[in-house]
């Protein structure tokens, strides 16, 4: 399904033994830990393997697809097709008989996988300290890289489970049965790892493409936001700013342009290389169906933006939000797509959008096509909402010629760091409101949206939420934001309960003239793409422990809400 990475490993070495001291021999079928870690070059090979966890965490928000499908942003194509399609709907509906501990662990829990990675990072630090013969500078740098990855993994556990078990590199102190650490201890451990990394890693100009201090400070701003340690968020964000990161002038470049190509906003991104057979499958799932059907093949269109997400965008002139009421029924009036702000056009493909030298046709019998949600079994590249995802889908990718995509996947960018700081400033109180207002103004200025500032209280909070939802759309934040704010159980639109998602079914009534195809007339009909209300159960604020941990660790028991 996907080719994630190609790891270069040191080959095992067979040595000719002439000594009689055979009792002290290292194993001859593999490279010893001592050899692996004694030089900078060898150690970097091993750390390179640990880097793959950055991708794994990035793409493992939910085993069945993007977590945006658990919110009002995205809808997968059918409730009766494959796991990617129906499991996000099942989770979003929140039926108590479905959301058992074993079910949630299977599709949203990564306890075992991330602890395997953590054990590898701990072993790496232990061996580095025991056998490393490189300079102190290189030793500290390598430890910083490893501790960043360890913090990255622990963070993903903390945001899912709140109380976890902390293991560090002191391998000799490991015990079979170990109790939970407190939530405060978990966040402090992550903070210390990231602080160590930030203080011992080079900046991006000297890192050679490896993990650098900007990544550590930037990720700290995210982690400490979850921890509600707002002073640390501000400090970390200011450290990032001091390193010279800035917003790209073009919003699309912020997530699609590579660091190697000069992206000034990307802090941490995962890059791919077709020549090395390092690709990803994102385009296969999300590209408009017409990219395939025009060549007699079926693909793409698995998940598409919702009408609710489209209605989250303002007019480009800053005059507010459109009145979508006429399109909550059936009408031939053209929706106000062309008047919406630039981030909409960089994120969503709609009827008539330009794409790969053609116009998107998400209507019944159009080139991209329409499917009735939960009536037709397979998407086959067709949309059930009337839209397709543009953001993070590579317009330059020929899906017929190449199965795997190579456009970078963004893990952290400066706009998020700024919004992390804005939120922290809001919670720090009124003396910090001016700084939060200035950040909102900066984020909106990139897309020419006006902002007078001077907001306070709930008005400021609403503005920050709006920017996080729209600016960071489809980057894996919104579901987790609503969870950490503790509002996910509330009624929509504040939370994720008591609502259904919608799309626009589009039917073409006639063709425009050859001279003016804009004369085409379409009927837009508001349709539900849910057959029941969504419901976020309060117990979903913390995912359950897996049975494997409960059976092997006698010092812990299942969280109370999951018993």
The strand count comes to 11
What structural class do helix, strand and pairing data support?
mainly alpha
Task: Give a short account of the largest sheet.
Answer: 3 strands, antiparallel
The outline comes out as: globular
* Rg, alpha carbons: 25 Å
Number of helices: 19
Strand line-up of the largest beta sheet: 4-11-10
Offer a concise description of the structure:
The protein is 39% helix and 8% strand.
Structure, explained:
By secondary structure, the protein is mainly α. The protein has a domain at 282-396 and 500-527. Helix content is 39%, strand content 8%. It contains 19 helices and 11 strands. It has helices at 33-38, 40-58, 83-93, 101-108, 111-131, 136-161, 183-200, 213-227, 230-242, 251-256, 282-286, 290-293, 307-310, 342-347, 414-428, 433-445, 457-471, 478-484, 547-552, and strands at 74-76, 266-270, 303-305, 330-331, 348-349, 354-355, 358-359, 388-389, 409-413, 502-510, 521-528. The strands form 5 sheets. The chain has a 3-stranded antiparallel beta sheet, with no helix packed on it. It has a two-stranded antiparallel sheet with strand order 1-3. A hairpin with a 2-residue loop joins strand 6 and strand 7 (358-359). Helix 2 (40-58) runs antiparallel to helix 5, helix 2 (40-58) runs parallel beside helix 6 (136-161) and helix 16 (433-445) packs parallel to helix 17. It is globular and about 75 Å long. The protein starts with 32 loop residues before the first helix and ends in an 11-residue tail after the last helix. The model is unreliable at 1-29 (pLDDT under 50).
């Amino acid at each position: 399904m996907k080719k994630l990475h190609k790891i270069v490993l040191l080959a095992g070495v067979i040595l000719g033994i002439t000594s009689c001291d055979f009792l002290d021999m290292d194993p001859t079928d593999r490279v010893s830990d001592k050899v692996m870690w004694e030089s900078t070059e060898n150690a970097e090979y091993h750390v390179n393997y640990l880097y793959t966890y950055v991708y794994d965490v990035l793409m493992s928000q939910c085993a069945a697809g993007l977590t945006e499908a658990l919110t009002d942003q995205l809808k997968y194509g059918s409730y009766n097709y494959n796991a990617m399609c129906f499991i996000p709907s099942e989770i979003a509906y929140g039926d108590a008989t479905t959301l058992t501990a074993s079910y949630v662990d299977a599709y949203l829990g990564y306890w075992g996988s991330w602890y395997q990675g953590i054990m590898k990072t701990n072993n790496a630090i232990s061996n580095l300290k025991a056998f490393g013969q490189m300079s102190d500078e290189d030793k500290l740098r390598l430890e910083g890289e490893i501790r960043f990855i360890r913090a990255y993994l622990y963070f993903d556990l903390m945001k899912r489970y709140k109380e976890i078990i902390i293991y560090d590199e002191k391998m000799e102190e490991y015990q079979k049965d170990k109790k939970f650490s407190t939530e405060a201890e978990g966040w402090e451990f992550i903070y210390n790892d990231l602080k160590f990394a930030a203080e011992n890693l080079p900046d991006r100009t000297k890192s050679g493409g490896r993990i650098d201090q900007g990544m550590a400070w930037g990720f700290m701003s995210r982690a400490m936001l979850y921890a509600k340690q707002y002073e640390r968020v501000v400090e970390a964000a200011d450290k990032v700013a001091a390193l010279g990161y800035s917003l790209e002038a073009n919003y699309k470049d912020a997530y699609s342009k590579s660091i190697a190509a000069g992206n000034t906003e990307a802090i941490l991104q995962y890059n791919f290389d077709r020549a090395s057979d390092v690709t990803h499958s994102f385009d296969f799932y999300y590209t408009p169906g017409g990219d395939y059907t025009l060549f007699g093949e079926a693909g793409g269109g698995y998940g598409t933006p919702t009408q609710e997400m489209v209605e989250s965008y303002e007019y480009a002139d800053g005059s507010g939000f459109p009145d979508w009421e006429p399109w909550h029924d059936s009408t031939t009036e053209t929706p106000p797509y062309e008047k919406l702000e630039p981030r909409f056009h960089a994120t969503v493909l709609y009827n008539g959008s330009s794409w790969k030298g053609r116009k998107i046709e998400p209507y019944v019998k159009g080139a991209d096509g329409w499917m009735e949600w939960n009536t037709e079994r397979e998407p086959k590249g067709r949309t059930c909402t009337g839209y397709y995802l543009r953001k993070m889908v590579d317009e330059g990718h020929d899906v017929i010629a190449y199965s795997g995509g190579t456009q970078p996947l963004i893990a952290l960018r400066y706009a998020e760091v700024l919004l992390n700081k804005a939120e922290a400033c809001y919670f720090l109180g009124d003396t910090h409101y001016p700084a939060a207002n200035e950040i909102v103004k900066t984020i909106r200025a990139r897309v020419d949206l006006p902002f007078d500032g001077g907001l306070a209280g709930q008005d400021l909070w609403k503005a920050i939420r709006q920017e996080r939802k729209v600016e960071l759309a489809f980057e894996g934040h919104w579901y987790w934001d609503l969870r950490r704010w503790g509002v996910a159980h509330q009624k929509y639109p504040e939370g994720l309960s008591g609502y259904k998602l919608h799309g626009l079914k589009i039917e073409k009534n006639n063709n425009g003239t050859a001279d003016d195809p804009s004369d085409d007339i379409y009927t837009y009909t508001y349709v539900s793409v849910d057959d029941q209300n969504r419901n976020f159960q309060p117990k979903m604020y913390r995912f359950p422990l897996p049975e494997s941990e409960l059976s092997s660790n006698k010092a812990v028991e299942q969280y109370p809400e999951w018993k």
